[in-house]
Automatic annotation (TrEMBL):
PROSITE patterns: TRYPSIN_DOM (PS50240), TRYPSIN_SER (PS00135). PANTHER family: ACROSIN-RELATED, TRANSMEMBRANE PROTEASE SERINE 11C ISOFORM X1. GO terms for biological process: proteolysis. It comes from the Eukaryota. GO terms for molecular function: serine-type endopeptidase activity. CDD domains: Tryp_SPc. Belongs to the peptidase S1 family. CLIP subfamily. Residues 1-194 form the Peptidase S1 domain. This is Peptidase S1 domain-containing protein. SMART domains: Tryp_SPc (SM00020). Keywords: Disulfide bond, Hydrolase, Protease, Serine protease. The keyword Protease applies.
Length: 200
C-alpha cells in the first residue's frame, strides 16, 4: 500500500482558501496501490484521506455523495466542476485565490467519442471519463487537479462523478478534460474507508 506522509498536508474547507473557513490535519492518506507516478501515466489516479478530527457541515461547507459502482452518468449529463486553479492555460490563481465564482458547467463526453483519433486516440481507458466540449473554450485547468466533478439527480442529491485528473492543456478544441471515474473505484474507496473507520 502506497502511503504519503500526512504530516506534510492539511485540508482546507470553505469558499475562500486564504484564510479557509475550516482547516484540518490529516490522519492518513492512501494512494491506490497500482498508481505509478510516471509522467503521462494517469491510470489509478485516486487516493483517499482521513481527517485527524471530524468536520461539521455548514451553509459554507457541503458534502457530496459517492455514487454506487453500478450508477450510470450517461453521455451529455450536465456536470459542474469547481477549483482554485488557473483561469487560463499557464495562468495563475488570482488573489485571494477564490474558487471559480460560477461553477463551470460541462457535459460528459462518451468514451468512444473521446477515444476517437482526433481527440485522445485511444488514451481513455477504464476508470476515466471525459467531460467538457469538443469545441473547447470551457475546461478545468492547472491547479484544479483533485477537484470535484459533480451532478445532481432528480431529487437534488449531488453525486461525485469524477475527480479532475488530466488533459491536453486547457480548453483546447478536441481536448476535453479527463477525470477519474468515481463509479469505477467505488468498491476500492469503500474498502479503504472501511479499513480506516473506528470499530465502534
Amino acid at each position: 500500500m502506497h502511503l504519503i506522509d500526512p504530516r506534510l498536508w492539511t485540508a482546507s474547507f470553505g469558499t475562500v482558501r486564504r484564510p479557509p473557513k475550516e482547516r484540518r490535519s490529516i490522519h492518513s492518506i492512501i494512494v491506490h496501490e497500482r498508481y505509478a507516478n510516471y509522467l503521462y501515466n494517469h491510470e489509478y489516479d485516486i487516493a483517499v484521506m482521513k481527517l485527524a478530527t471530524p468536520l461539521s457541515f455548514t451553509s459554507e461547507i457541503h458534502s457530496v455523495c459517492l455514487p454506487e459502482s453500478s450508477q450510470v452518468f450517461p453521455e451529455n449529463t450536465s456536470c459542474f466542476v469547481t477549483g482554485w486553479g488557473a483561469l487560463r492555460e499557464d495562468g495563475e490563481c488570482l488573489s485571494p485565490c477564490l474558487p471559480k465564482k460560477t461553477p463551470i458547467v460541462l457535459k460528459i463526453i462518451g468514451t468512444n467519442t473521446c477515444n476517437s483519433k482526433e481527440v485522445y486516440n485511444g488514451a481513455i481507458i477504464h476508470g476515466m471519463v471525459c467531460a467538457g466540449y469538443l469545441e473547447g473554450k470551457i475546461d478545468a485547468c492547472q491547479g484544479d487537479s483533485g477537484g470535484p466533478l459533480v451532478t445532481p439527480d432528480s431529487r437534488g442529491i449531488w453525486y461525485l462523478v469524477g475527480i479532475v485528473s488530466w488533459g491536453d492543456e486547457c480548453a483546447k478544441p478536441n481536448k476535453p478534460g479527463v477525470y477519474t471515474q468515481v463509479t469505477y473505484y467505488r468498491d476500492w474507496i469503500t474498502s479503504k474507508t472501511a479499513e480506516s473507520s473506528p470499530s465502534h
